[in-house]
Amino acid sequence: MILSDTVGFISDLPTQLVAAFRATLEEVLAADLILHVRDISHPETALQAQNVTEILGSLGVGKDVPLYEVWNKIDQLPSTGRTCRRSAPSTR
Asked: Mean pLDDT throughout 60-88?
C-alpha cells in the first residue's frame, strides 16, 4: 500500500513545484486501486475532483484502474447535501 498526500491541493501549486512532486505522484502508476479522499465540504470540491482526474490522466493512469471517492467532512454539509449513492468506480 502506498499513501500519498499532495500537500494541500496541487492545483494551487506553482508549475515548478508540481514538476518537483511528479516523481512522488508517479507512484500511482503502480496502483491496482485508487482511493481519492475528498473534502466534500470545500466550496470548490467539484473543481478539485476535476483537477485530480486531469492530473491522473496526464500521469498516464489507465481507465482500467478502479478509482473510488471517499468523502471526508460530509458532516459539514447541510442534511440535504448528504445523499449517498452507490455507483460503479469512476471511469475518469
From this structure: 76
Read off the pTM. 0.68
Long-range pairs, 9-13, Cβ under 8 A, ≥24: 9/48, 9/51, 10/51, 10/52, 10/55, 11/47, 11/48, 11/51
